Amino acid sequence: QVQLVESGGGSVQAGGSLTLSCSASQYIYCMGWFRQRPGKEREGVAQISAEGGTTYADSVKGRFTIRRDGAKKIMQLQMSDLKAEDTAKYSCAAGRGDCPAPRTYNFWGQGTQVTVSS
């Protein structure tokens, strides 16, 4: 069982930046961020493999950067030029397999709220 703990959510004005962090209790190959916006289904934001391969949703490309530390247990999502539509509950997830595929992720954190005001 992998435990995931997120931190770094909060409120920010449009155009601002926030960094989310996720700490895993053990190494696991795929890690990713997902979000659920009000009234919407959960969607993938960014995923990263242990080898550093990354995938981004089109809506965040060029604004968000995902990275992992050397031990591969800490993942961060650097978010810049935030927009009101980025407001969501962001969840860290982990799994083994095809990292871009949502079905890979079977371990989930509790989530952290990001609110962007315009």
Task: Describe, in plain words, how this protein is organized in 3D.
The protein is mainly β and 118 residues long. The strands form 2 sheets. Strands 2, 4, 5, 6, 9, 10 and 11 form a 7-stranded mixed sheet that branches. It is globular. The N and C termini lie far apart (40 Å).
What is the compact description of this entry?
The protein has no helices and eleven strands. With 118 residues, it is mainly β.
Total E-strand runs? 11
Find the structural class using helix and strand composition: mainly beta
From the N-terminal CA to the C-terminal CA, the straight-line distance is 40 Å
Shape: globular
What is the gyration radius calculated from CA atoms?
A: 13 Å
How much strand content do the residues show? Answer: over 45%
Share of residues in helices: under 10%
Reading the helices and strands in chain order gives: EEEEEEEEEEE
Poorly predicted regions are none
* DSSP summary: helix tally: 0
Largest sheet: 7 strands, mixed
Let me know the average pLDDT: 96
How are the secondary structure elements laid out?
Elements (H helix, E strand, L loop, with lengths): L3 E4 L2 E4 L4 E7 L5 E7 L6 E7 L4 E3 L7 E5 L5 E6 L8 E8 L9 E4 L3 E6 L1
Parallel strand pairs: 2-11
Antiparallel strand pairs: 1-3, 3-8, 4-5, 4-9, 5-6, 7-8, 9-10, 9-11
